[in-house]
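Example with several molecule types.
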Amino acid sequence: MFSAVTKFHDYGKQTIQAARYIGQGFAVTLDHLNRSPVTIQYPYEKLLPSERFRGRIHFEFDKCIACEVCVRVCPINLPVVDWKLIKSIRKKRLKSYSTDFGVCTFCGNCVEYCPTNCLSMTEEYEPSTHNRHELNHDQTALGRLPLSIHQDFTTQPVVTNYSVE
Ligand code: SF4
Ligand code: SF4
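Resulting structure tokens for the full complex:
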């Protein structure tokens, strides 16, 4: 008789504990009902990058003086600057410039230290491809102006507190 009372008592305690857990779960659910969704319907919706977002690098061939500062300040010496010396005017002339975004860490050092400001970081953040060699951009690919999300009519720009940083 005594053991039956003890069991009944334990059962009652467990029931109350379970009800408390369920209540806590509902409280979390109700709390999240008031919040904006974190996920978006990519690729039909896209997050707006933040103001100083470091995306794909844009390069202006005509402004480059082939000084190679960008190579020296790059933590992995990534940019490939090919130039020839014009002896008559004792100046370098740029032949080609490339950056491999499969290796780039998007640290922004090259942009920061370029003396002629011919490098800038765009808001493009979708460099994915089936072939990693396609991520090696030459001066033509680097010179392409970025496509703003606002100009992409296939998608809906989304402004949330969770913009791409
Ligand atoms: S630092 Fe600027 S100007 Fe100098 S080589 Fe690099 S991109 Fe050209
Ligand atoms: S962003 Fe950084 S890692 Fe990429 S090329 Fe420039 S300096 Fe190198």
